[in-house]
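Record format v2
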Amino acid sequence: MYTLYFKIALRYLLKNKLYSFINIAGLAIGVASFILLMVYIRYEHSYDRFDGSENVYRAYMDYLEGDTYVAGDAQTYNQVGPTLKKEFQEVEDYVRFYRLGKTTLKNQHHILEISDGCVADPTYFDIFSQNLTYGDTRTALTEPNTIVLTASLAQTLFGDQNPIGKTLQFFQGSSTLVKVTGVLPDLDQNSHFKIGYLISYSTLPNLEAVGDNIKRPNWNNNTFFTYLKIDEKADATLLQKKIVDRGMTEVQDERMNIEPIEDIHLYSNKPYEAEANGSITRIKFLTAIAFIILILSWLNYINLSTTKSLERAKEIGIRKVAGAQKQQLIVQSLLESFMLNIAAIIIAIIIATLILPIYNEFTGKTLRFEIDIIQKLLPILGIILLGMMLAGLYPAIVLSRYTPSKALKGKVRTSAQGLHIRKALIITQFLATIILLIGTIVVTKQINFINDQPIGSDLNNVLAIQGEILTNKSDSLLRADFSVLSQELKQNSIVLSTGLSNTYPGDGYDNLSSFMGMTYPDGTINEQKVWYTYEANTDYFEVMGIEFLAGKTFKETPKGYSKDIIVNAEFVKEVGITNVEEALHKKVKFWGRDWNIVGIIKDYHHFGVKNPVEPMVLRYTPTRDVLLVKLNPSVTSVSGYNTALNELQKTWSSVFPSSTFNYTFLDKKFQKQYEEDNKFRDAFKIFTALAIFIAALGLFGLTSYTCIQRKKEIGIRKVNGATIFKILKLLNIDFIKWVGVAFFIAVPISWYAMNAWLQNFAIKTSLNWWIFGLAGIIALGITLLTVSWQSFAAASANPVDALRDE
Amino acid sequence: MLLQLNNISKWVHSGGQKVYLLKDISFWVNEGDFISIMGPSGSGKSTLLHILGMIDDFNEGEYTFLDESVHNLKEKYRANLYKQYIGFVFQSYHLIDELTVKENLEMPLLYKKYSGSERKAMVADMLDRFNIVGKKDLFPTQLSGGQQQLVGIARALIASPKLILADEPTGNLNSKQGEEIMDIFTQLNKEGVTIIQVTHSEKNMAYGSRVINLLDGSIQ
């Protein structure tokens, strides 16, 4: 019996190729989109999950701003860990990381520049449940001058041999010898804290490039990431409250706080994060899209099946006359749904697998379909299948209810209730489509708005050249070398200008210093505000195209030291001066000395336009590790960037023969801050397009249904003189009404959702009325096109054919 | 007696008025009868046939089939009853296009409790009896009208019903094909199968032993 059911289903699907294609394609696209989105969402949720991760917390600093504490810094003082362990028995242990930034490792002729190395406590392995491929976790980080490498790093530096006990040269400003005591297996990428290598904490005093206030146990320098292991029986919420309530005598206007490590990637966005984290809002939006697409494909499926069941009325009639009972007909219909859905799911999995590499490139993640992922997705697939079966139940029941005598005559009419259900389904489809359309338009508008924002600095054709100078040189000698280098570069026609600094717009917090405590020009003392500062030389502003509102750039001083500072307009506003001219030559006090304001620059975006402009203090330096070079666009446009880069490297190497060389294009780096947003926008676009496609398929099905149902009516109208246009109008008017209803429901929902989303941005585009209008027009346009495609055939058909079988 | 109708009426409401499709129909059928129902279009022939076949209901009256009161039966029992005793033959054959000849024949058996080997034997028997063994793997659309109606009759007969209800069985056929079909009915009737046919044709009527004339839903 069942084999016959399968046979008939298969033959039916093969016979009605267009219908089968539309139905399976709709489902497969929906399910494939759902799977891909879910794999990504799962990945984002899987950050920092390891054995015992539920008991690991990160300590961070809250700053007092006005009357309330705000999350001030993801990094802490080096005494936070030891203090919390000593004072709270729930804290079992702590591990501190000090990020070394740009460093170079050298084993004979193998030289490697790497920027994600850290100094770490030996407790790392226990707290992060990390094993070693080579070496002993108990002793690996206990001795001074020892290093633990990741497997890929060890491979690059030592090849396939076991590197334990071997020594490496470690460069950061100067050279230090370190012994390899462990090799970590390559770590999964889904941690917010990426590690290239670890150097023992006891090595810290021996590293010349690290400042003294970092080496000493102190409460002055918060540049340490601190993670705590909490007793699994302890109440973490209570502990957090106790830590917050403890207050701080060590530092004014700050307090310690903790957060679960598992929440960091999606929920934390503090200054000085280890990396740009994900965003839970984005994930929520993507989850919503995933479900909308899935539901759309179900609705689509229900509509199409119900539509098609009408054509099968005769078969149902014959079966009933032959003795089939309701349940048997339902079972048969469900079996067909099952086959169709299994086919769709299989195709969806194939599509998803094929697309995965492209998808990975797009998301920048390494998502995989591994056994455990598939296992975790099984319940979801189960839900999908169950949903589809439920979706199949409706047409099955409708089908089984046909009265045989009427069914045989082909005189089935859907009940008013049935029509209501289908109307509701189609309106829901329109609703989802319009909401997605509005979402896409708003997201695109906002992201493009951000991308197009003037940042107050011209980064085009500016390169940041960095390289590790692998010889020990005194500051004054380096200064001389940089001066020579600048002179030589300026003589080259490729170069317009050069400058020096230790960071630049778009570089983020990485190389930016911050401090608290400043005396304003009027004598006000502010202890709470966080100020950001970095160093630059005289030519910096010219290279970066940053304009002066008052005053001018630094005077060169041979000593390499100056009390002059240049501040931005926001700074002037912050210290209570309304006119920038007035701020000139005023004095402020921080770090225990007076500073003289010699210039006020126009506000520029240091962190990207998503964030508000912060007050900025620039101090003078004649030598710093970032060499900024503005290339001559008229030359590079002819000879190309590669020639320019080769020449730059030649000049650099002639001044620093023993060194490495690397470069960054500043405009690209600045744009990189928006990479996630751009991808979000693109994802939104792609999945909205797919959703619309699915909805259009459903509409197509529904129209064909209407045309069948109204065939006779159309025939009669035409016989009585109705024109094709009149018939088209008749067939389209219902759909236009439904789009209208959906539109009016969609507008408030999407206005609310998109308004909430826009709150994440400091600079936001406006929610103009035309966005909604455009979405409505697009929905209406797609609807009319889809509907007319079918209804035109019905409207232009010869009425005699329609009336013949009466 | 196979079945008996007492004062059967069926009506619909149209424009606020009761329109009778059948009015006060009473007759009986004995086993072995060959009855022709005649009458012009719209006289209620097909409706009557559908009521006899229990695939349509009526508003008033009594219908007794093999001593069972059909009008009092629940749908499920009614279905069991007609499944067991009644076979249908239609003017437009009503074969399932997606099934082969063999599968179309097997289809009704699936809804009655026969084992796979029994079904095979019964199908083979029918194919044999109607000389369509060679066509068993063809689909209905690959057959001529006469051949399709042969399959339709074979399907109606496969579960050995007591009663065959035929709704203009030759209506879509040419005269030669029609004669062949009517010959088969005669043969079946001789073998003891009761046949009730709806027909327009005087010629076909002549094959039957009794005629019921319908006009505007009433027996004349």
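The interface with chain B takes residues 1, 4, 7-8, 11-12, 15, 314-315, 317-325, 328, 403-405, 408 of chain A (CB under 8 Å).
Chain A is about 50% helix and 20% strand.
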